[in-house]
Amino acid sequence: MNITNFKNLSKNSLRKKALLIAEAGYQAINITNTVRQKISLKNGKLSVFDTMTRHSVKKYLDIDLNNYKNVFVVGIGKGSALASLALTKILGKRLSAGIALDVQKPKLEIRNSKLKILTGTHPTPSKQNVKATQKIVKLIKNLKKNDLLITFICGGGSALLCGSQKELKSSQKIFKELTKAGADIFELNTVRKHLSGVKGGGLAKMAYPATTVSLIVSDVLGNDLSMVASGPTVFDKTTKKDAEFILKKYNLPPRTYDLQLRETPKDKKYFKKVKNVLFVSNREPILAMAEKAKEFGLKPKIYSLKIKGEAKKSLLPLIKAVKKKEVVLAAGETTVVLQKKTGNIKYRAVGKGGRNQEAVLGAIINSLNTNYLIPNTIVLSFASDGRDNTEAAGAIGDGLTLKKSAKLKLNLQKYLTHHNSFNLFKKTGDLVFAKSKTFNVSDFMIIMKSN
Questions:
Q1: How many helices, marked H, and strands, marked E, lie in the chain?
Q2: Architecture label for domain 43-280
Q3: 6-28+283-449 and 43-280: same fold?
Q4: Model confidence over 171-209: pLDDT tens digits?
Q5: What architecture does CATH give domain 6-28+283-449?
Q6: Which pTM does this prediction carry?
Q7: Which residues contact 245 (CB under 8 A, 6 or more apart)?
Q8: Is the backbone of residue 354 left (phi > 0), alpha (psi -120 to 50) or beta?
Q9: Which of 195, 268, 193, 187 has its CA nearest to residue 232?
């Protein structure tokens, strides 16, 4: 069971079904199992499959390892350590060396001596990230024409991959401000690319003339591979002017923050020997959750895989869309806007929470005011990697939540105003906790209604 407090949350039949549907989503993106299912090595040929294709198995690519002198593995982002470790077990003696940069080292795993697992900080980069990134750069820059580089590029890589002290200094200055202002992931990563020598195709340029195969785990809306971890191996179509426009949009002029924007590699020769593959996305877990809903005799409705917007308002349309004996499923990434203007720019006191927790709290308040939330409706939102900006993965909300908050005389609106959803749901007992053994492929939303 991936949801660690499943029993405590399963206070009635409807809740239990919702949580089992969520669990099916988690199981579909278990890192180790997914790598084993999608990658195989036979007679020297490494094959990568799309295991979710119906009626037939689609093969993404075949790689004849006999054509290469050395095979290297590099993992970047949340979950990349476990993924790289699973791949090294498949490669066996074929692996020459590897480095994975993640937020934490896998526990209770037999390590491969050829794979170095490094850790960094997230969501804010640090000197630790720079040191780890420079080790990756050193490995990649030494690759030759007859070498093969296989990378796992995962969400969170934008913060973890930080190539220099200069980039670190710029990142620490500007991204906190962009996040507070409500910039979305596309805007954030566009700016990140143009402050970095490793993002926006930078690693692909460094690896040239070796062959690079990037297995990309998407956590961005629409699966734009150039935006996942700021696209270190993908040709970047954005320009320096795009980054400047975004900074101006949020009234964050580069001169004020001492930002030195740069252009990303535009010579396509660096990308001729690069194959970027969408390895995992939010499609797989959503389909798995839909199948689980059918087992309960419920009709699944996939509302969207691209949910976005302000977190506290994001779930009300889903609540309106659900009918009796239905499950509305969605995936995406919302935004928590912290910055508020009151005369001069001031920031409201900020508590503890994440976008999933805030989405559920906002849904409860909004639906309560509009009479959409009734006792037989469940609202559940959670992070695919089990971490919603806190140790919690997300939250579940329903009539029981309202009763408990009323009993404790909790002011829901006050908790929402101060973005303090974690402490609200901690008091009502509705936080969802999950293991960190799954890929980061955006957030998931489940809305259920019984008879």
A1: 17, 17
A2: 3-Layer(aba) Sandwich (3.40)
A3: no
A4: 888 988 998 887 888 999 999 999 999 999 999 999 999
A5: 3-Layer(aba) Sandwich (3.40)
A6: 0.90
A7: none
A8: beta
A9: 193
